[in-house]
Amino acid sequence: MKRLLPLLAFSLALVACTDTTGISESLKRTAHPATDPNATVHVAEFADLQCPACRGAHETIVKPLIAKYGKKIRYDFMHFPLQTLHRYALEAAQASECAADQGKFWEFVDIDYTNQDELNSETLKRWAKDLGLATDLFDRCLDSGIKRKAILDEYNKGKDAGVNGTPTFFVNGQRVESGLTELSTAIDAALKAPGQKL
After folding, report:
1. Distance of CA 135 to CAs 99, 117, 128, Å?
2. Are β-strands 168-171 and 174-176 bridged in parallel, bridged antiparallel, or unpaired?
3. Stretch 154-160: mean pLDDT, rounded?
4. Sign of torsion, CA 87 89 92 97?
5. Which of 44, 54, 64, 77 shows the shortest CA–CA distance to 171?
6. Residue 92 has pLDDT above 90, yes or no
7. Which of 3, 46, 99, 150 could tie 168 with a disulfide, CB 3.0–4.6 Å?
8. Which of 143, 104, 109, 113 is nearest to 125 (CA)?
9. Residues 67 and 125 sit within 8 Å (Cβ to Cβ)
């Protein structure tokens, strides 16, 4: 333990020395742009960017759901990095939020899931470059770890809501089975609820 203390102090000093000009610890991603941020039906997915099941759900559930409902719903991605299972999950979550600072969160999610088998620390920075992000800003954001606390706060909110694996979906705060049919049924019911706009 005594040997770890100097290493920990050195690591903290390195983070403290990172230039944080132009970067923020807050999460700036928005609802999916093909959906309506003001919709009364809210779909939230807790996901892990290194999770193969999340990659599958992105193609077979999320994209068809957004194509079907579009502006009738609000669709949000919530971070739930399973660090004990996926070595790069938390780093990928931070990278996606650094991309969000430059308005490219959803593009980063797409490139991550498309190339998930290649995921590591180096590819995260390459993907940022491929997306045309300002790489100095992105690299400083990622290297600083400035998004880590906010992402872990989101993870803890998921745990408090009963999330114990990924992907986990909620419609208007109610947990729904991870399937296109089940989610569609829940969304249709929410859209027909009293007080909904037609």
Report:
1. 10, 22, 7
2. antiparallel
3. 97
4. negative
5. 44
6. yes
7. 46
8. 143
9. no
All domains in the chain, ordered by first residue: 31-192 (3.40.30.10)
Q: Which run of H or E residues covers position 106?
A: helix 105-114
Sequence-separated (6 or more) residues with CB below 8 Å from residue 144? 15, 18, 20, 23
Name the phi and psi angles at 79, rounded to 5: -80, 130
Q: Could you tell me the pLDDT band of residue 19, with boundaries at 50, 70 and 90?
A: low
Considering only residues 196 and 186, tell me which one the structure prediction assigns the higher pLDDT: 186
* CA distance linking residue 17 with residue 163, whole number of Å: 36
Tokens of 122: 């180096």
Task: Give me the mean pLDDT over the 65-80 stretch.
Answer: 98
pLDDT in tens, 95-105: 999 999 999 99
Region of residue 173 (phi > 0: left; psi between -120 and 50: alpha; otherwise: beta) = left
The token pair at 21 is: 């000009």
Residue in the structure block whose two tokens are 């998921």: 158
Strands 168-171 and 42-47: antiparallel
Do 156 and 121 meet the contact criterion of CB atoms below 8 Å apart? no
Whether the predicted pLDDT of 86 surpasses 50: yes
Q: Where do we find the tokens 């490219």?
A: 104
- How deeply is 13 buried, as exposed, middle or buried, from its count of CB atoms within 10 A (0-12, 13-18, 19+)? exposed
d(CA 26, CA 150): 7
